[in-house]
Amino acid sequence: MSPTATAGPAAGFGEALRGWRQHRGLSQLGLSLEAGISPRHLSFLETGRSTPSQEMVRRLLDTLDVPLWDRNRLLLAAGYAPLYRESSLDDENLSQVRRAVRLMLERHEPYPAYAMDGAWNVIDANAGHQAVVDSFGEDAEEARNILRLICAPHLLRPYLVNWEEVTGAVLRRVRRQLDAPEPPAALAAVVEEVCAYPGVRELLQTSGLTARQDLFVPLEITNGERTQRWMTTLVTVGGALDVALDDLVIECFFPADEESERIALETAEAPTS
Description:
Elements: H1 9-23, H2 28-35, H3 39-47, H4 54-63, H5 68-77, H6 95-107, E1 113-116, E2 122-125, H7 127-135, H8 146-151, H9 163-177, H10 185-194, H11 200-205, E3 219-222, E4 227-236, H12 243-247, E5 249-255, H13 258-269
Antiparallel strand pairs: 1-2, 1-5, 3-4, 4-5
Helix pairs in contact: 1-3, 1-5, 2-3
């Protein structure tokens, strides 16, 4: 064994710390300056020669902007108990959050909106979103994951006029989520699944940048007779201290032109059979 390393918890934390530092493109000097510690102390932490205090662990994780889903792992590696809850969104302690999400979705009617977790699984959706899914005869269970919904050739993909642009924009967000030394396993599994569909892996490996001159990439959906253009916004929970809330994203759709707004309003007002 190297005389400059130990085999205890400090060594495990040091390896993980070094992984995140290198992943963020920082030198030891760069991270030490940003965290306000000496390069020598940082070197000792990375090699396991020094054991960090809990406060030091938190300072370094904050400086490196480590997401909540990986912070507990690094705390455990340093020998400390996890600080962040890892609840299920079905847990009773998150009931108030679920009510707030439901209120946001309902208030966004008649336009589509849904809430999803970090693996892009839809956990709640309003009637506007469900109407879009139902109008194309999608399987409810398969359509529950947004990545699968837009990437699978037998789901929404054939109706997306600008599929490559939309999917490229979505996969740029996915790449940011995967931007970690150890990406979340649930997300990685879904990404591996959708990459088996034609053209998806190639888009994931490229920038997905678009050459169009619009202010944003619209979602253009056609039923063969009419085409709707949508823009979307993302809502996240501020100051989340629970992994489930840190991963929670609400996506709201807005008509990108007057014709799309007219179609959406007509669809909402049409009587249901």
